[in-house]
Amino acid sequence: MKFSATREQVLGPLQAVIGVVERKQTMPVLANVLLSAKGNRLSVTGTDLEVELVASGEVSVAQPGEITVPGRKLLDIAKSLPSDATVTVAVEGEKVKVSAGRSRFTLSSLSASEFPVVESINATQTITLPQAELARLIAKTHFSMAQQDVRYYLNGTLLETDGKMLRAVATDGHRLAIAETALPGGGKGIQAQQVIVPRKGVLELQRILGSSGEVEIAIGTNHVRLQIGDIRFTSKLIDGKFPEYGRVIPTNPAKVVVVDREALRAALQRTAILSNEKYRGVRMSLLKNVVKLQAHNPEQEEAQDEVEIDYSGDEMEIGFNVTYLLDALSAVDTETVEIGLTDANSSCLIRAPGTTASRYVVMPMRL
Q: Which CATH architecture has domain 2-114?
């Protein structure tokens, strides 16, 4: 195998896939990337056995072939070269020679046959939608995914379609985020389906999704595959049943508070400074047109703050984990935010006024 290309033509695909290339691996080949050159195109593949990324671009191929080389080292070499450099990569015996200008590098390699690739995913259906919409769904929900929870099906995001809408749902058992978008063309021919994409895959998607162009989502029995421009993303799916999230979303909460989002966010951040570092609890006292915030810690220090709100219901007190509230408020785009409450022992519903495009449910905590 031998090809030559500009520094950018080599660096672009490498940077796209490097997120899944681990330095410390049980299998040495997983620290490598698979380089495949044929028909004046170079494809670079990285995998951690859960998520696979393939990025391709045009290069000048003198001799087609494929080989695997250490991913991080090749990336560091490409980064260190001058921006106008022309890079030549050639296989010589069991080594790979990289040359540019007066620089010469000799890398170790492993056979391409040792590299695990996902061939076909046996797609049952394909959904096409704008990249920006899928990026929005992930951005609005990813922070609510669980981390290393024994309920393994919570360590990811549910992607669900009912034929007309595409929904992303994430929950860690204490809070829930849901965002949805209408499918192009009314979702004609799309069947109802649910898949759980693992946390690592969701975070990689967030990194590579852009704001323009389309994305094609192919859903298979055990994998999901997305084509995003020149990048192909494939992830294993979590085999499990996602909770019936619809049952925990409050319907028509009795008490509705409308408040300036930034004012409440700033007040919560100030109050949180003196909250218990482990439990992060903040008490909210609802009064007519004002909410009082209060936090204290084991050192018996205390913080209090007040924010003007639009509220004329009954007075009530409720406690929340302040981190969960701040995450939800940060995900709302509008100037004002609507908080729906029932009582001190029931979850609250946070959303932008007058829309259900994204909603956030936070469970209360006893203080």
A: Roll (3.10)
Cα 251 from chain centroid (whole Å): 28
Three-state DSSP at 319 gives strand
Rounded Cα distance, 159 and 181, in Å: 11
Which residue type sits at 322? V
What are the boundaries of each domain within the chain? 2-114, 125-246, 249-362
Residue linked to tokens 């729906």 = 340
Minimal CA–CA distance to 249: which of 181, 196, 178?
A: 178
Instruction: Using CB atoms within 10 Å of the CB of residue 277, give its burial: 0 to 12 exposed, 13 to 18 middle, 19+ buried.
Output: exposed
Q: Which of 193, 177, 109 is nearest to 145 (CA)?
A: 177
CATH 3.10.150.10 for domain 125-246: yes
**What is the full per-residue pLDDT of the chain (367 aa) written as tens digits?**
999 999 999 999 999 999 999 877 789 999 999 999 999 999 999 999 999 999 999 999 999 999 999 999 999 999 999 999 999 999 999 999 999 999 999 999 999 999 999 989 999 999 999 999 999 999 999 999 999 999 999 999 999 999 899 999 999 999 999 999 999 888 888 999 999 999 999 999 999 999 999 999 999 999 999 999 999 999 999 999 999 999 999 999 999 999 999 999 999 999 999 999 999 999 999 999 999 999 999 999 999 999 999 999 999 999 999 999 999 999 999 999 999 999 999 999 999 999 999 999 999 999 8
Continuous segment of H or E residues that includes residue 267: helix 261-272
Half-sphere exposure of 53 (CA within 13 A, CB side): 30
DSSP string across 152-221? GGGSEEEEEE-SSEEEEEEE-SSEEEEEEEEPGGGGTTPPPEEEEEEHHHHHHHHHH--SSSEEEEEE-S
How far, rounded to the nearest angstrom, does the alpha carbon of residue 235 sit from its chain's CA centroid?
Answer: 13
Q: What amino acid occupies position 285?
A: S
Beta bridge partners of 315: none
Q: Rounded to an integer, what distance in angstroms lies between the CA atom of residue 193 and that of residue 163?
A: 8
Class of the CATH domain delimited by 249-362: alpha beta
C-beta separation of 306 from 263 below 8 A? no
